C-alpha cells in the first residue's frame, strides 16, 4: 500500500464508488483523483463533482465521451450484428474499454501510480477494466477494492454509507437500489428480486421504456439511411452516430422497444440474471441485418454470422484492445463497403418490423427472383444437375446400404 501515493478512481458518485473513494483515503492513505465519464447515461454529472469535493478531492475530471463512444465503439460493434448468447446487446461490455482508456490516460497526465474501479470480484467488469488497462499500460497498478475489503454484501455497503454519511439513491418506493448501469446504448438492472430467475421484474423497475401494453396504439414508421454499414440519417435528416442513437432511444422507448430479461454466462464462470433496456440497439440491429440482406454476398453474410459469436465473446470478456478483435474488425469493416441504402421499419408496442429495404448496391435481382416468366435470366432446368451433384455422396451411401434415418 505504501507504494501507492496517488490513484485515479473511476467515479460515478453512486453507492459503490463513493464508498471506494473514502475507503482509498482511509486504507491506502493516498491522494485520490476522480474520473467521471459521460457516455450518455442521461444523468447530471455535477453532483459527482460536488461529492468528490466533499471528500477533499483536488483533481476532479469529468469528460464527455458520448460522441467517441457512439462513433468508435458502438457503431463498429453493430457493423458485426453483435449479440452475446443470442440476446444481450453488450451495452455494459462495450463501454468498459473506453472508460479504461481514459483512466490510464488520466493516470499518466496526473502522475498517478494506480487506477481503481468499483467492479466486484464476482463480475465481468473487473476483467474488462483490467485487461483493457493492461493492454494500454502494462505497468499500471490496479486497486480492486471488492477483492480486498470486507464489505462483501449490499447490506454492508449501505451500513458503511450510513456510518460515513454517504448519500445514496433510493429505488422507487424506498429501499435499497438495484445495481444499475446506464449509458447511451442501454441501462441494466441486477440484484434484489432479480436474483431469483423465476421472479419477474417489477414494472416500476424499468426507467426508460414504457410497457409495450401501454405503448401508443398508433404505429410509428422510420426510414434509416445507411452508408458503409452505419446509420447516417433518420427520415432523411443527417445525424451523427450519437444523435442517431439518441433519436432511436427516444422513439424506441416511447413504443416499448428494447426490454430484455436474460440469464447469461459470465466470463468468471457463474450464471447471472440481468434486465436490460436497449431501444436504439434493438432497432439498429434489426435494420442493419435488413440492409445487409440485400447488399451482402451470401458467403460473406454467412461468414460474418459464423464469426459474430466469437467477436461478441471477445467484447463480453473484455478483449476490445486485443489483436484478434482488431483483426476481425478490419475484416468486418471491409465487408461493409457496399452496405448502403435505406431501410423502412415500423415500431409498435415493443416490436420492430421491417417494411422495406432498398439500395443502389443491392444484389437482389427481381428478374431472377420472380415467379413469373424470367426472360431467360435463370434456366430452371440447370437445377437438375445441381441437385444430383449435391446429392451424390448420399446416393452412393444409400447404394452401399447405409441408412441415416432413425
Which whole number gives the mean pLDDT?
94
CATH-defined architecture of the largest domain:
3-Layer(aba) Sandwich
Biggest β-sheet, characterized?
Answer: 5 strands, parallel
Uncertain runs with pLDDT below 50, 5 residues or more?
A: none
Q: Which fold does the CATH topology of the largest domain refer to?
A: Rossmann fold
Distance between the termini: 66 Å
CATH C-level category of the largest domain:
Alpha Beta
Q: What is the CATH homologous superfamily assignment of the largest domain?
A: HUPs
As a percent range, the share of strand residues is: 15-25%
- Number of helices, where a helix is a run of at least 4 consecutive DSSP H or I residues: 13
How many distinct beta strands?
Answer: 14
Secondary-structure class? alpha/beta
Helicity level, as a percent range?
25-40%
SSE string, helix = H, strand = E?
EHEHEHHEHEHEEEEEHEEHHHEEHHH
Rg over C-alpha atoms, rounded to the nearest angstrom: 25 Å
Shape: elongated
Overall number of domains: 3
Strand order across the biggest sheet? 3-2-1-4-5
Amino acid at each position: 500500500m505504501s507504494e501507492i501515493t496517488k490513484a485515479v478512481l473511476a467515479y460515478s458518485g453512486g453507492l459503490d464508488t463513493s464508498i471506494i473513494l473514502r475507503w482509498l483515503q482511509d486504507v491506502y492513505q493516498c491522494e485520490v483523483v476522480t474520473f467521471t465519464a459521460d457516455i450518455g447515461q442521461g444523468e447530471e454529472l455535477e453532483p459527482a463533482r460536488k461529492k468528490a469535493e466533499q471528500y477533499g478531492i483536488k483533481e476532479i475530471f469529468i469528460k464527455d465521451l458520448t460522441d467517441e463512444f457512439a462513433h468508435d465503439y458502438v457503431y463498429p460493434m453493430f457493423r458485426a450484428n453483435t449479440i452475446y448468447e443470442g440476446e444481450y446487446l453488450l451495452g455494459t461490455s462495450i463501454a468498459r474499454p473506453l472508460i479504461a482508456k481514459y483512466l490510464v490516460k488520466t493516470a499518466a497526465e496526473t502522475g498517478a501510480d494506480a487506477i481503481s474501479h468499483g467492479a466486484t470480484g464476482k463480475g465481468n467488469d473487473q476483467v474488462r477494466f483490467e485487461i483493457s488497462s493492461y493492454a494500454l499500460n502494462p505497468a499500471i497498478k490496479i486497486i480492486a477494492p471488492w477483492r480486498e475489503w470486507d464489505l462483501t454484501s449490499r447490506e454492508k455497503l449501505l451500513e458503511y454509507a450510513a456510518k460515513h454519511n454517504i448519500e445514496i439513491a433510493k429505488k422507487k418506493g424506498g429501499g435499497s437500489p438495484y445495481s444499475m448501469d446506464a449509458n447511451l446504448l442501454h441501462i441494466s438492472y441486477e440484484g434484489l428480486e432479480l436474483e431469483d430467475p423465476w421472479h419477474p421484474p417489477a414494472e416500476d423497475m424499468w426507467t426508460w421504456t414504457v410497457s409495450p401494453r401501454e405503448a401508443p396504439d398508433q404505429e410509428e414508421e422510420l426510414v434509416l439511411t445507411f452508408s458503409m454499414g452505419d446509420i447516417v440519417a433518420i427520415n432523411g435528416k443527417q445525424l451523427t452516430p450519437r444523435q442517431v442513437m439518441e433519436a432511436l432511444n427516444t422513439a424506441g422507448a416511447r413504443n416499448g422497444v428494447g426490454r430484455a430479461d436474460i440469464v447469461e454466462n459470465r466470463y468468471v464462470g457463474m450464471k447471472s440474471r440481468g434486465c436490460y433496456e436497449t431501444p436504439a440497439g434493438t432497432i439498429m440491429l434489426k435494420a442493419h441485418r435488413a440492409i445487409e440482406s440485400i447488399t451482402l454476398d451470401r458467403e460473406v453474410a454467412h461468414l460474418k454470422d459464423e464469426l459474430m459469436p466469437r467477436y461478441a465473446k471477445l467484447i463480453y470478456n473484455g478483449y476490445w484492445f486485443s489483436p484478434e478483435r482488431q483483426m476481425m474488425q478490419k475484416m468486418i469493416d471491409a465487408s461493409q463497403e457496399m452496405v448502403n441504402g435505406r431501410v423502412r421499419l415500423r415500431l409498435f408496442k415493443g416490436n420492430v418490423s421491417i417494411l422495406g429495404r432498398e439500395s443502389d448496391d443491392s444484389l437482389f435481382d427481381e428478374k431472377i427472383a420472380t415467379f413469373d416468366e424470367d426472360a431467360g435470366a435463370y434456366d430452371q432446368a440447370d437445377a437438375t444437375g445441381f441437385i444430383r451433384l449435391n446429392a451424390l455422396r448420399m446416393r452412393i451411401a444409400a447404394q452401399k446400404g447405409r441408412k441415416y434415418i432413425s
